[in-house]
Amino acid sequence: MARRTMLSCLLPGALSPLFCLWAVLLPVVSPNSLNHHEHQDPRPKLLLVSFDGFRWDYIDRVPTPNFRKVMDEGVKVEFVENVYITKTYPNHYSMVTGLYAETHGIVANEMYDPALNLSFSMETDSMYDPRWWEEAAPLWVTIQKDGGRSGAAMWPGSDVKIHGMFPTRYLQYNASVSFEYRVRRLVEWLSAPEEEAVDFGVLYWEEPDESGHNLGPQSPLMDAIIAGIDEKLGFLMDELKKAGLYEKVNLIVTSDHGMAQLSPEKIIELDEYVDRDLYTWVDKSPVVGIMPKEGKVDEVYGLLMDANPNMVAYKKEEVPARLHYQHNIRITPILLEAKEGWTIMQNRSGPFMLGNHGYDNTLRSMQPVFVARGPAFRQNYVKTAMRSIDLYPLMCHILSTRPLPNNGSLLNIQDLLSSEPAASTPTPAHPATPPEHHGYSYAPVVGSFIGVVMVLGFLVVYVLLVTLKQRPALKHRSWEMSQPLLQEDLHL
Ligand SMILES: *[C@@H]1O[C@H](CO)[C@@H](O)[C@H](O)[C@H]1NC(C)=O
Ligand SMILES: *[C@@H]1O[C@H](CO)[C@@H](O)[C@H](O)[C@H]1NC(C)=O
Ligand SMILES: *[C@@H]1O[C@H](CO)[C@@H](O)[C@H](O)[C@H]1NC(C)=O
Ligand SMILES: *[C@@H]1O[C@H](CO)[C@@H](O)[C@H](O)[C@H]1NC(C)=O
Ligand SMILES: [Zn+2]
């Protein structure tokens, strides 16, 4: 009789505090678990948008109410250091891998790989060969391997089969497809029924890069182009609203690089300094990849090293370490870098542009815009500086996906987040690469495990105590010792 009373009082009484303890411990074990798992919420959504060549200061040049709205409702970063060389393909791949170009392998828009004996050009089908891309894995591949889904509207590389995978949903690259069509498809994918909806979207648009090249960024005609991009952003925001996604999706709007004004007076003609027969011209101005013919490296370098005060010639092994542009077989033995605003050509008869990019990534003119809003982001917050490679660990954090090894740091950028990750409180463990929580499989498993262990532990103790109570003497003492604890729990 006494035993049964104890059972009926103690069991629920003792167990409920255990469950409370479990509930308290669970978020400590994984900060993501409460948000994404206990309430059965789907994985947070993230849409990364790149307006090619949208320089950081374009937003202040004409009224850009939609960019401003994103900033007011979210965050803005003033100085975004992208990766060298400041070209389209290297930077788009860095954003989705967190790696410098020398590590992810897309070192330029035009490349030659001596090991493969193959050339890559963003203008030919060569770019569909996975071998160019597989020195890294983009975030959409990682998300999908983690059980998530991704959608891509023409992001460079997103229609290439990389590590055996395309994005879950994607569009074949076609520059003629309108921005509006791309947006509608993405919004459709993001708002599909939960078991089909994409978690991570990437959206690419060719402007204002194209106009920036043709007109030059200083042209007054650029004003209308920039205003037009702001309208496109407004269209995207409206479509998200119509689909009921605006408050759910974390929206990042950025770019790959800026744009510098060129001038026909600032042309460097290589033919004046070195015979064309001595080298192969691999990549275009303003950072020209020069591959000297067999045995001609020193001769070509000697001819170019002091050739023109507006151009620097590097042997590959002399490229400054801060540029992180050396350790890849696809980087040519000689690199020519023009000073800002200068163009390197073989002679003047080639096509000439009024705007270009590719120069040193610390030049202000090369840097892109960065604004973001959504549940993961703080509101009305301006951050001074970031590196574009830090975007990758940030996106992985938002998506609760474990990042692959990368060159970015969540620590550098986590102040953009509305709730800083647990790793932000100073801890001695690995400050450079804060631990990422693999919310999906890990949190529920750990939480359940702790709960089960606690319940089993209690039952074992309880059964022992009850059994032993029938043989008082020695065992009676342990019962007395544990009883106050249980009694206390009862009245918590
Ligand atoms: C590289 O490929 C070209 C054909 O594209 C061929 O002519 C050449 O011999 C190859 N070079 C080497 C070193 O295999
Ligand atoms: C590219 O898109 C345009 C506009 O939608 C279409 O007319 C054209 O057929 C497409 N080209 C290819 C190769 O699919
Ligand atoms: C410039 O180079 C092209 C070949 O790319 C050649 O046909 C042309 O004659 C050259 N022009 C001058 C002025 O040397
Ligand atoms: C960038 O990250 C990769 C992967 O962890 C690593 O192999 C490489 O050495 C890093 N580069 C630098 C400059 O730290
Ligand atoms: Zn670009």
Provide a quick synopsis of the model:
Mean pLDDT is 84; it is low at 1-39, 423-447 and 468-492.
Notable traits:
binds zinc ion; 18 strands; disordered C terminus; 492 residues; Ectonucleotide pyrophosphatase/phosphodiesterase 5; Phosphodiest/P_Trfase; transmembrane; globular; 8-stranded mixed sheet; Gyrase A, domain 2; Alkaline Phosphatase, subunit A; alpha/beta; 4-stranded antiparallel sheet; 13 helices; binds 2-acetamido-2-deoxy-beta-D-glucopyranose; 35% helix
Notes on the protein architecture:
This protein is 35% helix and 16% strand. The strands form 5 sheets. Strands 6-5-7-1-8-17-2-18 form an 8-stranded mixed beta sheet, sandwiched between helices. Strands 11-12-14-13 form a 4-stranded antiparallel beta sheet, with helices on one face. The model is unreliable at 1-39, 423-447 and 468-492 (pLDDT under 50). The longest helix has 31 residues, at 439-469. It folds into 3 domains: 2-39 and 456-490, no CATH class; 45-99 and 136-259 and 362-416, Alkaline Phosphatase, subunit A (3-Layer(aba) Sandwich), CATH 3.40.720; 267-356, Gyrase A, domain 2. The two termini are 26 Å apart. The protein is globular, with a radius of gyration of 29 Å. With 492 residues, it is α/β, with parallel strands linked by helices. One 2-acetamido-2-deoxy-beta-D-glucopyranose is lined by residues 346-347, 349.
